[in-house]
Specification:
52% of the residues lie in helices and 13% in strands. It has 311 residues and is an alpha/beta fold. The protein has one domain: Alpha-Beta Barrel (TIM Barrel). The chain has an eight-stranded parallel beta barrel, surrounded by six helices. Helix 9 links the parallel strand 6 and strand 7. Helix 8 packs parallel to helix 9. The longest helix has 21 residues. Bound molecules: dihydroflavine-adenine dinucleotide (FDA).
Length: 311
Amino acid sequence: MLDTISKSFFHALAASGSLKSLASKYGMRHHASFARRFIAGETLDEAIAACREIQSRGLLLTLDQLGESVTSLSEASAATRGYLGIVERVVASGIERNLSLKLTQLGLALDKASTVDNLRRILDVAQRSDFFVRIDMEDSPHVDATLDVFETAWNLGYKNVGVVLQSMLHRSEKDLARVNALGARVRLVKGAYKEPKSVAFQNKHEVDEAFVRMMRTLLAEGTYPAIATHDVKMLDATKAFAAQRGIGKDKYEFQMLYGIRRDLQAGLMAEGYRMRVYVPFGREWFPYFMRRLGERPANVGFVLKGLIADR
Ligand code: FDA
């Protein structure tokens, strides 16, 4: 019960535009250093330093500039230019060339055609520099449009792009068949958004069962899938299925979020699995941070401790 309340509470905070802008204005450095457990910093320099440290431990990475739901096409263009700058800086820094982005940051909620144009601008330079670009999946009202834009890009010949599917949504197994038919890469997650029961499983057991079904389909029929979870049961089910089918450790990868279950990250790597860390950075850290708090009420205690220590 408490879990459900706290989840809803943090999802409401994550969606609050005014809190988001307040948090961006205040900055993370002095006023919310506890957020740094989950966010690699506000600047690209800080994120690149974090990426170097991650790489030095033998882990793979994907870099995400935080930001979502822009409210004008000029903001979407600015975000697109931001990504072009990131591509250049990543190339110069020598860290791994792998980005994650959200389409509402490129204008998805405003205009699909402009979003396709913005995405193409990013994919063009990314392709030339041998980047892989993952399109994150957002809440259910954006799923159709996200898949449409992704498929449009794929059919235009961009093969350096993949998408995310959420096991909590009833529709996702059908979407998986659609993406597998293209031969595109999927990152499988449980889903980070608060969704109504008309579209999503409401209890963990059902979300987990769907995750295992989708993981099996992906490993058996998909293209280099990414199994993104910190759940030991999901990790064990994946390892067991791969071993049973004789699927090599180079045919798929595990992914986890920056700052979460570093013990599991290191353990999987030591066992010879590919392990990629999702590294978020930027001033727009508030909604991402709230979703992480909502996932695990124990994190709230951690934040409170941080607040006291900050005083
Ligand atoms: P679950 O929530 O059942 O947690 C299992 C265990 O993991 C917990 O018991 C705890 O030990 C640990 N854990 C999980 N979350 C934690 C937290 N916040 N703090 C501390 N410990 C925690 N979602 C989405 O909707 N769209 C997307 O594009 C993405 N992208 C994405 C990329 C990557 C690389 C990852 C790992 C995850 C995402 N997600 C996502 C988030 C995902 O949907 C989901 O919300 C989180 O991964 C938490 O779910 P778990 O699978 O870890 O299981």
